[in-house]
Specification:
Layout (H helix, E strand, L loop, with lengths): L7 H17 L38 E9 L10 E6 L12 E5 L5 E6 L11 E5 L7 E3 L10 E8 L3
Parallel strand pairs: 1-7
Antiparallel strand pairs: 1-4, 2-3, 2-5, 5-6
Length: 162
C-alpha cells in the first residue's frame, strides 16, 4: 500500500474531495423539491378591476412590468395565462381605468407589459399584479420597487389549481 505524505496540500485536497462528495449528493439519492404556490400579498387587490382588457401597452409606456408564471409542484411554465397589471403612474392613479391592463404569458410562461413610469403612492413606488384567469387560484401581488427611479419591476407567480 502506498502512503501519501501528510502535507497541508494533501489535507486540503482530501478535505475538498470529501466535502464535494457530501455536497454533490453522491452518498444520498437526489430528492426533487416541490415548487410551492405563491401566496397573495396584503394590499395586492387594492383597486382591482375584474375584466381589465388585454392591451399591447398601458398609456405612453417607458416602464416595464415583467415576470413568469409557473405551476405549483413541478414548476412547469404556464402559457396563455392572463396577468392583470395596474399602478399609480405619471399618467394616472391606480384606481383609474386607464392605469389598468392585462397581458398573456408566452410559451415560456413569461409576461411583459409596458406602462407609464410608476410613482410613489402612500410613500412607496409599487405595482399591482393579479393572476385572474380562473384555471388556478387567484393571486394578487404588490411588489415594491427599490427606488422610484427604477424603470422596471419584476414579479413571479407559482399557481395551484382552484
Amino acid at each position: 500500500m502506498t502512503r501519501m505524505p501528510l502535507t497541508r496540500r494533501n489535507l486540503i485536497v482530501a478535505g475538498t474531495s470529501a466535502l464535494a462528495t457530501g455536497v454533490s449528493g453522491l452518498r444520498l439519492p437526489a430528492v426533487a423539491k416541490s415548487v410551492e404556490p405563491t401566496q397573495s400579498m396584503r394590499g395586492g387587490s387594492n383597486n382591482y378591476r375584474p375584466g381589465a382588457p388585454i392591451v399591447e401597452k398601458i398609456g405612453g409606456g417607458g416602464f416595464w412590468m415583467t415576470g413568469t408564471v409557473r405551476r405549483a409542484g413541478d414548476g412547469a411554465p404556464l402559457e396563455g395565462q392572463r396577468i392583470q397589471i395596474w399602478a399609480h403612474t405619471t399618467e394616472g392613479h391606480e384606481r383609474d381605468p386607464q392605469s389598468h391592463g392585462a397581458t398573456l404569458t408566452n410559451a415560456k410562461g413569461e409576461f411583459r407589459l409596458e406602462m407609464p413610469q410608476i410613482v410613489p403612492a402612500f410613500g412607496q413606488p409599487h405595482g399591482h399584479l393579479a393572476y385572474d384567469s380562473g384555471d388556478f387560484e387567484t393571486v394578487f401581488l404588490r411588489p415594491v420597487m427599490s427606488s422610484a427611479s427604477d424603470t422596471r419591476l419584476e414579479a413571479h407567480f407559482v399557481l395551484t389549481t382552484a
